Amino acid sequence: MSELIYFDSNATTKTAPEVVEAMLPFFSERYGNPSSMYPFGGETAREIRLAREKTAALLGCDPREIIFTSCGTESDNTAIWSALRTQPDRRHLVTSRVEHQAILSNLPLLRKMGYRVTEVGVDENGRLLWDQFLEALTPDTALATFLWANNETGVVFPVAEMAEACAERGIAFHTDAVQAVGKIPINLSATKIDLLSISGHKYHAPKGVGALYVRRGLKFSPFLIGGHQENGRRGGTENVPYIVGAGRAAELALANLADENTRVRALRDKLEKGLISAVTHTRLNGGGAERVPNTTNISFEYVEGEAILLHLAGKGLCASSGSACTSGSLEPSHVLRAMGVPFTAAHGSIRLSLSVHNTEAEVDRALSIFPPIIAKLRAMSPFWRGDGPAPGSLLTCETGACQVCDP
Amino acid sequence: MWDYTEKVKEHFENPRNVGVVDRIDGDGQVGSLACGDALRLTLQVDRGADRIEDARFQTFGCASAIASSSALTEMIKGKTLDEALRVTNQDIADFLGGLPREKMHCSVLGREALEAAVANYRGVPLPAANSPIVCECFGVTEREIERVARENRLTTAEDVTAYTKAGGGCGRCAAEIEKILARLADRGSEAAPQAAPAPGGTGRKLTFLQKARLIEEAIREEIAPALMHDGGDIELVDIVGDEVQVTLKGACAACPSSKRTLADFVTGKLREMVSENITVKEVRP
């Protein structure tokens, strides 16, 4: 395999060398428990405090508003269940149709427990349907929870305005900012956001550490019940090396924010424009909306995503797809479907997500890797002939009875 | 990431027989762009010998769909149509050294394309065409589900989804799929009250009535539709002990290979679905 081109930073990122270096002493040398009464342990509590300050600086909040967790999913779950437990008289939750599984997978359980859930839709560019959002907010609503930036398309929701609308109505607002942090400026002190989730491994900390912002004064109920750690808000001995790593990564992310928004954005734009001009019959998903600077989602029509990914992998290029075949489910990405992307394009969708560690040379190589792969797959596709879609091709199956052919 | 065998990867990287045959004698198109995989199989047939001279495919789909299509063409080239029709989806998966369970529907797609191409060559309708749709999301018929479940000995709705996609969309047909599986299981246990091994197992004690019912069902559900594929038909005349007496009709009656059809196919199916002791005798109407 040729040298790796990693364009899948929305899946996970490389742990930055500076982060690894910061973490290393806390495994075999400074391994004391922060709760211990002797300096060998107690001094690590100071390191956690520093990491909390660095994380708070990245988010523009008070360090006391940060709870360290194990991952973004834990942060999301904590936010949802805390909001419900602290407001037992409210039985309604508002979210969107394009959320991450960390939120979506809670919904069937909530419904089973008797909660009402409203899933607000999006337009063809993945933008929130604002009127639908406002209509969903009721006096019975315990929590509104929305992605800040979508993991598949990079489309950004106007969470500051949304939190404002919720605050006016006395409704708690949570945002999963896992794909936003480090990519766009976040200043929580200037917003009405009550709860916010982040995950370390999306901004060059290792997998296994996340954080939840809880606005001061907000009623809170812990998800992991145990010791007094994290000010009694998250039981369990602190994961010292990883929290230290998350702190260092937050520091780097803040320093790299300008680069992310200029150089990385330019790389993404070059990649996106280059692919769309080099390959015919493509579709830019979410291109008409405000997006984080590192993500692009392109459908290559008449070919299937998993086949593209495997050929890309053969050339050393790592990416993701919203096709059915890559998910193990049989239907393509719920995000693309909510945007009304036709199934025919959703199956051939590819997500490319960059980071500050990518280079222009990699973008140039990617631009030469893609076209022959798409051409090869189209050449063997029954829906393709010569330079375009096969005329009168079999767009419907022989029964013609499925919901797509005959809705 | 899927755990594909080296053989799957190899056929995906270097697919054999891509394209369309020079002279299209049989053309089978299954799946759809919307469903996420589609396969067109074209056959060039030596009409005298009823033998597949060339087979080529065009596939829209994932790596396992492309590899299954490539494998299928390699397996059927040079075979007579009857021999080719005996290729099962499991044969395709075996040829590739196995497929992930969730990808078994790719092998089923291959087998369906083959049947469609042969039916197109012979100018007969597909037997599944008149069966009611169970899964509306993916347009899967009751007959397809029954057949794939029986041939692959599937016992759970998840397996049915992995092999046919049925139930993998909105999930509304889950109860219907369970019903089909329960019906298949009932047939099995009715015939074998002492928990015999899977369908067609050996050493089952059948009452005459049970045996007669199973024979009737095998002929009605499996054997007759397959022969109708070839423009023929079969009628059950009598059952004497383990001897099943049948009459062949239509194209089968005049077909020189009918004796082999009987020996190989009818006997095989009855032994598989009823009892290993079955013999078949052709009687004049």
What does the model show?
- The complex is a heterodimer of chains A (407) and B (285).
- Chain A has 407 residues and is of the alpha/beta class.
- Chain A has two domains: 133 residues, Aspartate Aminotransferase, domain 1 (Alpha-Beta Complex), CATH 3.90.1150; 237 residues, Type I PLP-dependent aspartate aminotransferase-like (Major domain) (Aspartate Aminotransferase, domain 2, 3-Layer(aba) Sandwich), CATH 3.40.640.
- Chain A contains 15 helices and 15 strands.
- In chain A, the strands form four sheets. A seven-stranded mixed sheet of chain A has the order 2-8-7-6-5-3-4, sandwiched between helices.
- In chain A, a hairpin with a 2-residue loop joins strand 14 and strand 15.
- The two termini of chain A are 44 Å apart.
- In chain A, 52% of the residues are buried.
- Chain B has three domains: 117 residues, Alpha-Beta Complex (Sufe protein. Chain: A); 65 residues, BFD-like [2Fe-2S]-binding domain (Arc Repressor Mutant, subunit A); 75 residues, Fe-S cluster assembly (FSCA) (GMP Synthetase, Chain A, domain 3, 2-Layer Sandwich).
- Chain B has eleven helices and eight strands.
- A three-stranded antiparallel sheet of chain B has the order 1-2-3. Chain B has a three-stranded mixed sheet with strand order 6-7-8. In chain B, strands 4-5 form a two-stranded antiparallel sheet.
- In chain B, strand 4 and strand 5 form a beta hairpin.
- The longest helix of chain B has 22 residues.
- At the A-B interface, helix 11 and helix 12 of A face helix 1, strand 1, strand 2, strand 3 and helix 2 of B.
Write the layout of secondary structure elements.
The complex is a heterodimer of chains A (407) and B (285).
Chain A: E1 5-6, H1 17-23, H2 25-28, H3 39-59, E2 66-69, H4 72-86, E3 92-96, H5 101-104, H6 107-112, E4 116-120, H7 130-136, E5 141-147, H8 159-168, E6 172-176, E7 195-199, E8 210-214, H9 229-232, H10 240-278, E9 282-284, E10 295-300, H11 305-314, E11 317-318, E12 320-321, H12 324-327, H13 334-338, H14 343-346, E13 349-353, H15 360-379, E14 384-385, E15 388-389
Parallel strand pairs in A: 1-11, 3-4, 3-5, 5-6, 6-7
Antiparallel strand pairs in A: 2-8, 7-8, 9-10, 10-13, 12-13, 14-15
Chain B: H1 6-13, E1 26-32, E2 37-46, E3 51-60, H2 63-76, H3 81-85, H4 89-95, H5 104-122, E4 133-135, E5 140-141, H6 142-151, H7 157-164, H8 174-191, H9 208-229, E6 232-240, E7 243-250, H10 251-254, H11 258-273, E8 279-282
Parallel strand pairs in B: 7-8
Antiparallel strand pairs in B: 1-2, 2-3, 4-5, 6-7
Helix pairs in contact in B: 1-2, 2-5, 4-5, 5-7, 6-7, 6-8, 9-11
